[in-house]
Amino acid sequence: MCRTEHILVVNSQNNYLCYSQIDLIRHYRLETRELRDKRAKWNGIPTLLQKLYESSHPNSDLSHAHTFLKLLLSQLSVEAMSFVTEDRKTAQESTFPNTYTFDLFGGVDVKKNCQINICASVTTVNDDLVKDCLSVLYNCCICTEGVTKSLAARDDFVLFLFTLMTNKKTFLQTATLIEDILGVKKEMIQLEGIPNLSGLVQSFDQQQLANFCRILSVTISEPDVGNDDKHTLLAKNAQQKRNASPSRAEVNQVTLLSIPGFIERLCKLATRKVSEATGANFLQELEDWYTWLDNALVLDALMQMATEEPEQSSTESSDESSLATSPLRHRLPQSMKIVHEIMYKVEVLYVLCVLLMGRQRNQVHKMLAEFRLIPGLNNLFDKLIWRKYTVSNHVVHGQNENCDCSPEISFKIQFLRLLQSFSDHHENKYLLLNSQELNELSAISMKANIPEVEALVNTDRSLVCDGKKGLLTRLLTVMKREPPDSSFRFWQARAVESFLRGATSYADQMFLLKRGLLEHILFCIIDSGCTSRDVLQSYFDLLGELMKFNIDAFKRFNKYVNTPEKFQMFLTQINSSLVDSNMLVRCIVLSLDRFESQTEDVKVVEVLSECCLLSYMARVENRLSFLFRLVNIINVQTLTQENVSCLNTSLVILMLARRKAKLPFYLNALREKEYAEKYPGCLLNNFHNLLRFWQRHYLNKDKDSTCLENSSCIPFSYWKETVSVLLGSDRTSLCAIASYIDEPFMDLDRDLLED
Question: Residue 390: is it exposed, middle or buried by C-beta count within 10 angstroms (0-12/13-18/19+)?
Answer without folding.
Answer: middle
